[in-house]
Amino acid sequence: MKLIGSYTSPFVRKISILLLEKGITFEFVNDQPYSAESSAAQYNPLGKVPALVTDDGDCWFDSPILAEYIEQLGIAPAMIPREPEAALAVKQIEALADGIMDAALTSVREQARPAAQQSESELLRQREKINRSLDYCEALIRDGKIAPDAFDLGTIAIACAIGYLNFRRVAPGWCVERPLLVKLAEAHFSRESFARTEPPKA
Ligand SMILES: N[C@@H](CCC(=O)N[C@@H](CS)C(=O)NCC(=O)O)C(=O)O
């Protein structure tokens, strides 16, 4: 199968990690969705990555759908629990982490605009979303809703979101007073799948 995406995208990283952890062979097709040469729209009318083209030629897009598709292949280790309510909880954590990625991406795009056109209030709005969501994740671990040694679709997504915050230096103080989240992120970053998908050092 082919994964279409950019090495800097946290959404793409999440999917690469799922494939690597399950030992699924794939071809990575590098595509920069913001460049004029991007062919992302050929796979996803929204022009976003990641997209996945299966060996049968089917094309799937939007990372939660890709994650679900990969899980449905039935290859161990399971990254989504089988029990429906537990599965929903993990997918909700994924949705929250994806929202952190969206807010970080919006901040990066805003900061890339000429200084005079940047909106301070928009940057603040996005920063608040990120901070509230990180607090929520810290509380999930503190309250035992995420086990300290958990490794599943939800925690992979959280670690990818944090990796993107670090990479783009968005919310640089995110680790202050979130010790459980720091531990969770460090445990994930030490895995080979995370090492192999680190964004390029620009
Ligand atoms: N909801 C999408 C978000 C994907 C996304 O925003 N990807 C960014 C790269 S990090 C993108 O392709 N942006 C191009 C654009 O918005 O035109 C997913 O989970 O796959």
From TrEMBL:
Which residues does the UniProt record annotate as the domain GST N-terminal? Answer: 1-78
Q: Which InterPro entries does the record associate with it? A: Glutathione-S-Trfase_C-like (IPR010987), Glutathione-S-Trfase_C_sf (IPR036282), Glutathione_S-Trfase_N (IPR004045), GST_C (IPR004046), GST_Omega/HSP26 (IPR050983), Thioredoxin-like_sf (IPR036249)
Decide whether keyword RNA-binding is in the record. Answer: no
What residue stretches are annotated with the GST C-terminal domain? 83-202
Keyword Transferase listed? The answer is yes
Keywords tagged on the record:
Transferase
Name the Gene3D superfamilies on file.
Answer: 1.20.1050.10, Glutaredoxin
Which superkingdom, per the lineage?
Bacteria
Instruction: Give the enzyme's EC designation.
Output: 2.5.1.18
- Sample GO molecular function, one term: glutathione transferase activity
NCBIfam families (alphabetical): PRK10357.1
Protein name, entry field: Glutathione S-transferase
According to its UniProt entry, this protein's organism is Pseudenterobacter timonensis
